[in-house]
Design a protein that fits this description.
The chain is α/β, with parallel strands linked by helices. The protein has helices at 3-16, 22-34, 71-74, 82-93, 131-147, 159-171, 204-209, 214-228; strands spanning 52-53, 59-63, 114-118, 153-157, 188-191, 194-199. Strands 1-3-2-4-6-5 form a 6-stranded mixed beta sheet, sandwiched between helices. The two termini are 25 Å apart.
């Protein structure tokens, strides 16, 4: 294993052990105890969720936070929920995943040239982290980027992720251009040596209403792959 690989493993362990946000710790653990009826026989993860993917990734996908009965249950980001079904199917269609489904940590999913993570690593109540909880997690994404030196593009799933990515870039010493880039589906912003691309979040609210369609997310991911080189 390379030195960078060992550092990614160390960072993963640090993330999983994190208890910085009392409200999130209480919520994620309560969800893991009470469970959803459909998953009552499963053992929930109930801890923060580290990033996942190819250590040689040239593209990063940044989401909002793990789903209470998705990543918080399975222990892998975007795994075991409808948003993940959409995201990984799209990554598969553009050649950045070896299979279209993500059900569990041992389902054989492998990402190709891509790393997936979330701005906030714990499942939040009502899917709404506070600004302080967001800021507590910022150093993790910053360190991930430092340990993924080939990343050239960050796909931001929703306005929250877009804002978080801009904050991460500032922490890395790359001030966003003025005026501050605004989120939009397909929006692009060059910040330092990275390009941010906006994409509507593949939530059920967006996919069921048609705000986000398969061609729309495919186009964003194809553009990310093109820019990543």
């Amino acid at each position: 294993m390379t030195a960078a690989g060992r550092e990614l493993d160390d960072l993963e362990r640090e993330i999983v052990d994190c208890r910085r946000c009392p409200r999130l710790v209480a919520w994620r653990e309560d969800v893991a105890r009470t469970k959803r009826a459909a998953f009552r026989d499963e053992e929930y993860w109930g801890r923060p969720i580290p990033g996942y993917g190819d250590p040689e990734a040239r593209a990063m996908v940044l989401g909002l936070a793990p789903a209470a009965h998705g990543g918080n249950r399975t222990g892998r980001i975007f795994t075991g929920d409808r948003s993940g079904d959409w995201l990984f199917a799209a990554l598969y269609r553009v050649g950045m995943a070896n299979q279209p489904l993500s059900r569990s940590r041992d389902d054989g999913l492998r990402l190709i040239g891509c790393w997936v993570c979330a701005a906030v690593r714990c499942a939040p109540p009502a899917n709404k982290p506070t600004p302080a909880e967001r800021d507590n997690c910022m150093p993790y994404a910053t360190r991930e980027l430092d340990l993924l030196p080939h990343v050239r593009v960050i796909v931001c799933l929703g306005a929250f992720a877009w804002d978080a990515a801009l904050r991460v870039m500032r922490l890395r010493g790359d001030a966003p251009p003025r005026p501050r880039p605004r989120f939009g589906h397909g929006a692009e912003a060059q910040v330092g040596d990275l390009t941010l691309i906006g994409c509507y979040h593949p939530s059920q609210q967006n996919t069921f209403t048609g705000k986000l369609t398969e061609p729309m997310i495919d186009a964003v991911l194809a553009r990310a792959r093109e820019l990543a080189g």
